Amino acid sequence: MSEFLTIGEPIALFASQDTDQSLKDALNFRKYLAGAEVNVAVGVSRLGHSAQYITRLGEDPFGDFIKDQLRENHVQTDYIDSTPDYWTAFQLKNKVSTGDPDIFYFRRGSAAAHFDAKMLDRIDFSDVKFAHLSGIFPAISEQALAAFRHLIDLLHEHNIRTTFDPNLRPQLWSSPEKMAATLNELAKEAEIILPGDNEGELLVGSRDPETIADFYLNQSERTQTVVVKVGPKGAYVKNKNEAGYWVKGFKVAQVVDTVGAGDGFALGLITALMEGKSQRDAVVRANAIGAFAVQAPGDNDGYPTPEQLQAFLDKNLAVTGDEF
């Protein structure tokens, strides 16, 4: 049993150590645990909350590595199934001095893409306060999409609050149109939606935060809040039938790797809400953990402990005069 759960495809990530070298030319790589939903679960656990991760892995070295890493990060693995019939996904990522790194996936036909939806009926929802959903898992196969929808039904049945991050991966979809239509349909089922302004351009045809927020608030009675991530500027928040507001971001000395920042934002928001903090303070925490994430090379190794987070907030909010 846990306070938080998510479903996704964990990945063994090989991150290049050769700065500004293409994936073709890079020779030195370091192995990490990766995957958007994994990142959120790891960060939730690091902040002292119980987290459960749902997936399917292959019976192979990558699958064993992922399970070991999850356990080391105190993420519960009761709902991880293993199969000898399919392999565990992995990916390559290059290292860049500026901008976003290039990524190449090896995940088609993976074990997670053959997820058995019957396993969802084993889940104990009794202590779950939040479930985080991402647009990646339903993109990996029609079988995964069907399981994702079944999980949504179960979450509604148990009255569990849900966040949804579109997490666009165009390379996993047959077309941009299919991606936008499917993700917007799935977004209707979430109470809180967490798009980025760049994602809004592909999903709703606009980068304007208020336009993005209004689209999702108006398309579903279930959706109550939209928080649009706008990079270093911070986030735009709008609740149904209320005026929107901005929560500014945090400046960092050096951006090392932007991957994992959006997942850090999600876990910051979720953990703060689970702790009973106000919505504004939850978004402050979300921005703070996003700032932590961009200063570390791995997808989730930069996420803070409670002590590190509080020290960061004490230092930075004292400068701005804000409160948390």
Question: Could you please describe the fold and organization of this structure?
Answer:
- It is a single chain.
- By secondary structure, the protein is of the alpha/beta class.
- It has a domain at 1-127: UDP-N-acetylmuramoyl-L-alanine:D-glutamate ligase.
- Helices cover 35% and strands 22% of the residues.
- It has nine helices and 14 strands.
- The protein has helices at 36-46, 61-72, 142-157, 176-187, 197-203, 209-219, 261-274, 279-293, 306-320, and strands at 4-7, 11-19, 29-34, 51-58, 75-76, 80-83, 90-95, 103-106, 130-134, 161-165, 192-193, 225-229, 234-239, 245-248.
- The strands form two sheets. Strands 1, 4, 5, 6, 9, 10, 11, 12, 13 and 14 form a ten-stranded mixed beta sheet that branches. Strands 3-2-7-8 form a four-stranded mixed beta sheet.
- Strand 7 (90-95) and strand 8 form a beta hairpin.
- Helix 1 (36-46) crosses helix 7 (261-274) and helix 7 (261-274) packs antiparallel against helix 8.
- The chain starts with a strand and ends with a helix.
- It comes from Lacticaseibacillus chiayiensis.
- Keywords: ATP-binding, Kinase, Nucleotide-binding, Transferase.
- Residues 17-305 form the Carbohydrate kinase PfkB domain.
Please give the structural blueprint.
Elements: E1 4-7, E2 11-19, E3 29-34, H1 36-46, E4 51-58, H2 61-72, E5 75-76, E6 80-83, E7 90-95, E8 103-106, E9 130-134, H3 142-157, E10 161-165, H4 176-187, E11 192-193, H5 197-203, H6 209-219, E12 225-229, E13 234-239, E14 245-248, H7 261-274, H8 279-293, H9 306-320
Parallel strand pairs: 1-4, 1-9, 2-7, 4-5, 4-6, 9-10, 10-11, 11-12
Antiparallel strand pairs: 2-3, 7-8, 12-13, 13-14
Helix pairs in contact: 1-7, 7-8
